[in-house]
Amino acid sequence: MTRAFDKERFRRSERPLRVAANDEAAGDLGTVRRRRFRAVPLRIILPNVVTLFALSMGLTGIRFAAEGQFQLAVLAVIVAAILDGLDGRLARALRGTSRFGAELDSLADFVDFGVAPALILYFWNLHQIKSFGWFAALVFAIACALRLARFNVMTEDPEEKPAWHAHFFTGMPAPAGAIVGLLPLYLSLSVLGVPDAHWLVPFEIAYVLLLAFLMASRIPHFSGKRIGRIPREYVLPVLFGVVVIVLLLATYPMEMLVCLSFVYLASIPLAVYRYKAFEKADARANADESEHPILDVLR
Question: What is the enclosing helix (H) or strand (E) of 221?
Answer without folding.
Answer: strand 220-222
